[in-house]
């Protein structure tokens, strides 16, 4: 297993809880139907999981995370929504503790960029999908993120994030690699698409820029940067201030690229 770069600080969860099936799994939604069993790998705080459970009811959705504390975040969201068709399991995507041909859909959002062996992970996801079932994955590509104005602090943020993520055993530019990883995992029936998140109005800029300004200083990424010598506290403060400068600029614009795959098992 690779080390999870983001961790679960409030500033991280602020972003992850914003995610929905509509804004993060839109490519998958046309393929879902009532009665389809789903494994949600790396479910995080469970907002996407809950949406999927609502869409496929009465079938069950299994939420998977690597630790019980991480899984508790999803449990809290599922309980808050009053859903009763979600099961919870701790496990490793490299060695899933499920029988072959178990699920109609195996889904992972922003997971493969963090794992030690994404090809092995995809093989396992394929193994537990039923014949003819789907493996659906979506991952961002940090090097393809683009923004205006061109602030040096944001360039510094990107370079630091990629250094820390790769030091943790991940691949932050996973998006462009997804299709090749799926082919290496043995998939032959693959539909590849892409989509973006865009933050440009004052409210969105304030939320996204403020969130990253906090994450740079307070999340696991900050601690890892300091511990490994990748950045100093002054570096982190400068990058954080850069995010706030971007957020306050009426010309501020940011687009994040995501790669998506629908793989037929």
Question: How many individual helices?
Answer: 10
Based on Cα principal axes, name the global outline.
Answer: globular
Label the structural class: alpha/beta
Round the Cα radius of gyration to an integer and report it: 18 Å
Strand content: 15-25%
Mean pLDDT: 95
Q: Describe the biggest sheet? A: 8 strands, mixed
Order of helices and strands: HHEHEHEEHEEHHEHHHE
Compute the number of strand runs.
Answer: 8
**Straight-line N-to-C gap:** 24 Å
Low-confidence stretches: none
For this entry, what is the oligomeric state of its chains? single chain
Q: In percent, how helical is the residue content?
A: 40-55%
């Amino acid at each position: 297993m690779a080390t999870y770069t983001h961790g679960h600080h409030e500033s991280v969860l602020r972003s992850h809880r914003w995610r929905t099936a509509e804004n993060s799994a839109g490519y998958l939604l046309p393929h879902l139907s009532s009665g389809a069993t789903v494994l949600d790998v790396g479910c995080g705080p469970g907002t996407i999981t809950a949406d999927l459970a609502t869409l496929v009811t009465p079938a069950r959705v299994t939420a998977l995370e690597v630790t019980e504390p991480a899984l508790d975040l999803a449990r809290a969201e599922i309980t808050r929504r009053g859903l009763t068709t979600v099961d919870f399991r701790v496990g490793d995507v490299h060695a899933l503790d499920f029988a072959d041909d178990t699920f109609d859909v195996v889904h992972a959002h922003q997971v493969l960029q963090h794992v030690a062996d994404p090809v092995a992970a995809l093989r396992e996801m394929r193994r537990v999908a039923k014949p003819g079932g789907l493996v659906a994955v979506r991952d961002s590509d940090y090097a393809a993120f683009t923004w205006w104005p061109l602030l040096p602090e944001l360039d510094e943020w990107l370079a630091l994030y990629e250094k820390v993520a790769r030091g943790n055993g991940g691949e932050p530019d996973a998006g462009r690699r997804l299709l090749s990883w799926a082919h290496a995992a043995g998939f032959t029936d693959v539909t590849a698409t892409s989509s973006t998140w865009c933050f440009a109005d004052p409210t969105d800029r304030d939320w996204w820029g403020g969130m990253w300004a906090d994450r740079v200083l307070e999340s696991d990424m900050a601690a890892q940067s300091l511990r490994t010598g990748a950045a100093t506290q002054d570096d982190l403060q400068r990058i954080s201030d850069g995010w706030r400068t971007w957020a306050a600029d009426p010309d501020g614009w940011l687009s994040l690229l995501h790669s998506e795959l629908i793989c037929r098992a």
